[in-house]
User: Which sequence fits this backbone?
């Protein structure tokens, strides 16, 4: 990985690539739970690419016209899972936010 390594926002420890996950994970130094933060631009690109791939995949299978809107919502799951699997390798997150656990349950 070229450039500076991402750091823990709590303790400033440089996070090794093998510790970084796409879901929440614990900092190896301070133990605080961290979640990756993605920019709105990244989320828009991910959404548009995956919807486009879902439309192309559904269209190639012979689905056309107004029924396409229901079929695309099914076919989009494949590209979304593939994107998330590839994003971890090629586009690792660089910013993280601390996560507060446990979630508040109003004393239940």
Assistant:
């Amino acid at each position: 990985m070229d450039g500076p390594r991402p750091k823990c926002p709590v303790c400033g420890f440089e996070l090794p690539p093998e510790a970084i996950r796409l879901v929440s994970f614990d900092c190896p130094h301070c133990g605080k739970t961290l979640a990756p933060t993605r920019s709105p631009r990244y989320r828009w690109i991910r959404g548009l690419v995956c919807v486009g791939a879902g439309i192309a995949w559904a269209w190639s299978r012979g689905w056309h016209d107004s029924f396409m809107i229901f079929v695309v919502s099914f076919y989009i799951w494949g590209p979304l899972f593939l994107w998330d699997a590839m994003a971890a390798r090629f586009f690792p997150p660089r910013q993280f936010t601390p996560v507060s656990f446990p979630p508040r349950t109003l004393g239940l």
Observations:
- The chain has a mean pLDDT of 81.
- The two ends are 45 Å apart (CA to CA).
